[in-house]
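Feature request, filed as a ticket because there's no other form

It would be nice if the structure record came with a short human-readable summary line next to the tokens. Right now we just get the raw output. Example of a typical job, pasted below so the devs can see what we mean:
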Amino acid sequence: MTDSRVAAAPPKHDRFISYVHDICQDNRTRAELRRGLGLPIERCNYMHRYLVPWLHQHDDVTYPDTRRAYYGVASLIAARPRVARQTESADTSATAWYLRPNLGSALGEAVKRDVMKASTAESALHLLSRQSSDAVHRTLPSLTRQLLSGGIAPEWAVLLKDLSWWTRDRDLVATRWLDQYFRRSIPTGDNTTTLPEENER
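Raw output as currently delivered:
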């Protein structure tokens, strides 16, 4: 049975991502949102003026992880390098939520394109799967920067949803990331690893 929280596609997440992309057209706004990279909300004073009104109208952010996810993803989008800002992201909002690519898929694509070594990508995923929400937010800026520099944009709305549920469903989210990573990074039919024969010396 599919978890309803995974299958349901909350349109508010897509609307928020569109909103952030729009306000990031202004250089000052983008710079102020970028100042929140990896920081807890209590240190994101410059972001409140842009995010509080939107969140008040569209979402209940009484749960700390949910609000932190919105702030974290907004700062990641604002911190995109120039080349990434000039590239239009594919619109996947009509795709069933659980079929949309997540962070694991992006890392798998990075391995396929030689943007990242397989050992590095897999180690990053295993490390993230053991970290607290706060540690994940501190790790994501450098990880997403590497992906974006290689021309691979994470699915921001999916990342927002995953981060919102991190503390409550970390194992579920991490499993989906690893699942999509291995589906994307390993070529079809190549699911074996060559090991030396046991009697070889």
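Something like this underneath would help us a lot:
The mean pLDDT is 86.
The chain has eleven helices and no strands.
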